[in-house]
Design a protein that fits this description.
The chain is an alpha+beta fold and 425 residues long. Helices cover 43% and strands 23% of the residues.
């Protein structure tokens, strides 16, 4: 197995990247003095990967929306029972999640690390689907979908994505719809599993208190031999402008909720981390808690402590989003847009830039004290073709004129949309 040591001179730390002959990448970050360990087994397969083909397929196939999330649910079942029962015996806390562009299975533990890792590596490689269990799961996930249809915070976010995107599958709920999951059967699940759960499309990431040699021995001895698969995915063409400028819905909420988003042009995976950090700096300059705009809106009662902002990015999508509660959501949108358009003319000054850059740098460094953050960040960095240390290097070398150049070319008003959830009257 090929081993690479990745070091950082600022942190004086290092971690190991192993490449198994199957194509699986194993990232191990031992952290001295910590009592817990956190492990993930992830695949580069999320809800947006609905159209794909392998190297042996002549044409692309399109599968029902929500199938990646459905597969995540089903993988916990085996012929012998539920995978959670394995972790109940070790005392580890196990879970899984499906995002837009990846699916991960994980556990955290302070004891019985070896037994828990063996269970994780084993059940993820042991799919077991029958028509009967698939039908049963359609009912369970159907109820979950209906529950989220009534969740105001979930709806205000996905309604914004529907407003911003015409064709990109990111506009579809990760769990799909009741209709789309009714089209899933065991053969489709096996097809998706054998395409995306190929070890060359996967990564194991472990951080915290564990022994590197023991982890490698457990992983190697429990990997199943399978043929490598080359996967190609396809995303529909997406216009630059938003699909519609606003999406308004009424649900049972005490105060209106809003999401305001600027749809930006997506970037390739190698640029994703750098662009994300630049946008984070811009958002902090516009409406961070120390800005005049934030204080003004807060003091006037236009926003409250629920207000937040994020750079929403992944394979084929990128947006800058502001969210919270407000009785005047349209006014929040206008004030943010006015501030951004003004800042595009003046640019961020060097003093403000350095203050925010140093604040972000400190937060990034602090994240390396968190076992869960380190393990999760290694997975995200790997799937975007970066090292976990690249964040430190990029923020250290960031220049004010680079950020201002991005600011001036972004935040187009034709790419602005708002989603509002009003109380039912």
């Amino acid at each position: 197995m090929k081993k690479q040591t990745i070091q950082n001179n600022i942190l004086k730390e290092e971690y190991y990247s192993f490449t198994h002959e199957s194509g699986l990448t194993i990232l191990l970050y031992p952290m001295q003095g910590y009592s817990s360990s956190y492990a993930l087994f992830g695949t580069k397969y999320g809800s947006i990967d609905t159209t794909f083909k392998t190297h042996s397929d002549e044409t692309y196939v399109t599968v029902p929306e929500g199938i990646a999330h459905f597969l995540e649910h089903k993988l916990f079942e085996s012929e012998d029972g539920d995978a959670f029962s394995l972790f109940a015996k070790t005392g580890a806390s196990a879970n899984a999640y499906t995002s837009f562009d990846k699916t991960c299975y994980l556990f955290s533990t302070t004891d019985n690390f070896a037994e828990s890792l063996k269970a994780l590596v084993g059940f993820v490689q042991s799919p077991y689907f029958t028509e009967e269990t698939v039908k049963k799961e359609q009912g369970i996930i159907g109820q979950e979908i209906k529950m989220y249809e009534d969740d105001p915070n979930w709806r205000v976010f996905f309604n914004l994505l529907v407003a911003m995107y015409h064709n990109n599958p990111v506009r579809i709920d990760i769990a799909g719809t009741v209709d789309s999951i009714s089209k899933i059967d065991k053969d489709l699940l096996y097809r998706c599993y054998h395409t995306f759960y190929n070890l060359s499309n996967m990564v194991i990431s472990i951080a915290g208190n564990f022994d590197v040699d023991q982890a490698i021995e457990i992983i190697e001895s429990n990997l199943k031999s399978i043929e490598k698969v080359e996967v190609s995915t396809k995303t529909p063409d997406e216009p630059k402008a938003v699909a519609k400028p606003e999406y308004i819905q009424a649900l049972h909420v005490a105060s209106p909720l809003f999401n305001v988003g600027y749809k930006e042009l997506p970037v390739n995976e190698s640029e994703e981390l750098s662009i994300q950090l630049k946008y984070e700096l811009i958002l902090n300059a516009v409406v961070g808690k120390s800005t005049k705009l934030y204080k003004e809106m807060y003091d006037e009662g236009i926003i409250n402590s629920t207000f937040g902002k994020e750079v929403f990015c992944g394979r084929g999508y990128l947006a800058n989003i502001f969210a919270g509660e407000s009785k005047q959501p349209q006014l929040v949108k206008e004030k943010i847009n006015t501030a951004i358009q003004c800042l595009k003319k003046t640019g961020i000054d060097e003093t403000t830039f350095e203050r925010i850059r140093k604040s972000m740098y400190g937060r990034i460094i602090m994240n390396f004290n968190d076992v869960d953050e380190v393990a999760n960040d290694m997975v995200s960095s790997y799937f975007s073709n970066n090292s976990i240390y690249d964040t430190i290097n990029i923020i250290s070398e960031l220049k004010c004129d680079e950020v201002n150049s991005l600011l001036k070319s972004s935040f187009q008003e034709e790419c602005l949309a708002i989603s509002i959830i009003n109380p039912i009257s």
